[in-house]
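Input/output pair, single chain:
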Amino acid sequence: MKNRFTPLNLTLGSLFVALTAIGANITSIIPGLAVGGVPITLQTFFAVLAGLVLGSRLGAFSMFVYMMLGLVGVPVFAQFKGGPMSVLSPTFGFILSFIFIAYIAGKIIERKQTTLSYISASLIATALNYLIGTNLMYLAYMFWFEAPSGFTYKLAWIWMLPPLPKDIILAVVAGLLAYRLHRSGITKYQTSMEKNSA
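Output:
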């Protein structure tokens, strides 16, 4: 059935749930992993890659599962945190955005599979992650979380400048890696397995 995920789908989706959890805590697993003093986290990288490799539906679903695992208490969020109170965290908007960026990245490459489309999809998804995450962080500080002294909307965006170069580089890497995986035939293999199980 086309509307159902195959065992291969579920396996690949579970893999990206695990990779995103590892990416969230990579600096805890490998201390000192930073570029220019900015800690490297790979949550957004794997969320984008999920959409590029798995497609819009499965990519978004895998990120939804990742978010729900964290909310029920599994320590898959950054600093091995989890639980329903995570939804009140100022940074929860970035986690929520993973569902949307995986979907958008997948939708873009489902229309065209070129090197440029993969990189463009990855950069657009990363920009969307910043847009959703930063705006929800600002709202959190304004309405239900104690804001630092002198906090403004402009300051919220200034906070996002240090990790920006790292995230742009990782977005390009995600696009190139996903394209290489596509060219290697992994995507074709997944599609053929889906047809055989239909």
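Confidence is low (pLDDT under 50) at residues 191-198. The first helix runs from residue 7 to 24.
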